[in-house]
């Protein structure tokens, strides 16, 4: 690894003990740091991860944050889901302890400069996955990281100098970078999102733009030519600008991947073969089952209205929509023009249920459910043969689930229960 002694003997606290926090803590321990972990949640998931810490020397606290875990530390590493208003980050500022993101830690230790970082409001997981597949098909050794599988820091120790990293990057992670510098940075699109965290759209855009802040003329910035907000960023970057644009033959996600392939000198034949073989990613418009002529689709990854719009655009049958979760500043009215054409009824769940219901109720029937399995049962009763039940939440998962993956698994389990019970 690069800079293998950088963290040695430093007192470092990791905030958050979900998947990325666990990987951070274990990596730092292996690099010789004095590691502590703090998480305000004390539940089955955090307790399970505490058991996966590689050493009893890694101190941790669950269900509470205390100043002792921040004061006197050399560094704080923050997990992406942690709010900027959380106590550990406020204390870090008070005690003048530097704070970095997990991807900054990984970048400092990573042996290869061949980082392809992907951000945007929608499509990050699909594009990152496709880039990884294209690189593999071209004979490259690649690690696909981020909100897919392992966090970046969970793979760093395995990555060699000539390897590639296809990295999904969120705006939350980019807020706390200092030196992170991808060889190729992609900005896929930009639309309303995360206004529960950012004061306005410009604030959200500033976070996204940090993906190219350390690039120079030897690097590449790939921008969506059809997104007016992103197209204008060419004047702010020192990197070589490459544009992508959808066409009748390829969608925007594929166009972005094609642009990366061309930068890397990978033949179109290889890239198009990967496109043809690609069956999609889990929890993104994933076909689950057909029961009594009703098809069920798991789109738990759809945490924005735009993502749900994309899902509805791909539905050719009447839709019973299941939506809801934790509100994030969405404007649900923006889906209505399409929803009135595609959706026959809706079932809403979670903290945003009433807000979504109020937006939809004038246009089609809406029923509120207490749990996701209950919503699946209600939706199936409303559907008739030839319909589809689409779970496309448009919201964050954290009101009821640990992440979108758990939420998607619960949806699929509920569908399987319908089959088991002879629905």
Could you give a short description of this structure?
It is built from 15 helices and 17 strands. It has 423 residues and is of the alpha/beta class.
Descriptive report:
The chain is built from 15 helices and 17 strands. With 423 residues, the protein is an alpha/beta fold. The N and C termini lie far apart (54 Å). 49% of the residues are buried. The longest helix has 17 residues. Strands 7-8-6-9-10-11 form a six-stranded parallel β-sheet. A six-stranded mixed β-sheet has the order 12-13-17-14-15-16, sandwiched between helices. The model has no long low-confidence stretch (mean pLDDT 93).
Q: Which value, in Å, is the CA radius of gyration? A: 22 Å
- Average pLDDT reading: 93
How many extended strands? Answer: 17
Helicity, in percent?
Answer: 25-40%
Name the structural class.
alpha/beta
Largest sheet, spatial ordering of strands: 7-8-6-9-10-11
The main sheet comes to: 6 strands, parallel
State the helix count: 15
Q: Indicate the overall shape.
A: globular
N-to-C span: 54 Å
Percent strand? 15-25%
Uncertain stretches of 5 or more adjacent residues: none
